Amino acid sequence: MLLMISMCAAASSALRAQQPVKIDVYKDPTCGCCANWVAHLRKNGFAVHSADVADINAVKAKYNVPAALRSCHTAVVDGYVIEGHVPAADVKRLLTTRPADVVGLAVPGMPIGSPGMEGSNPQAYQVLAFDRGGRSRIFATYR
Asked: What is the pTM of this model?
């Protein structure tokens, strides 16, 4: 009996691990690059709920996104804030490593070459991790 309960618990755990991670994305209704970033997340296995909002700055204020790190859209996943064109791989790494002092990731501005901002002349950019005090540090660099 104990073996069967243990096997059921393991199967249930494995099933949860295969479930797509839910992410809520808040964006302007007319922003094409935001829609492209949502498509990038879906392609990388996220279950995206996309909400068009009239005042995106109110969303950024609600989730305490530092002014210097803001971009065009804001997302929330498993208690973390994701600001701008953050690659799905970095969101997954954040959710796996769960650094205690990090409340979110951001790609400030809209660099060409970031997910959703693909273009012929990609720019180098950084993904920044930020804490409750608004301090940031480099999480990833793309060239």
From this structure: 0.88
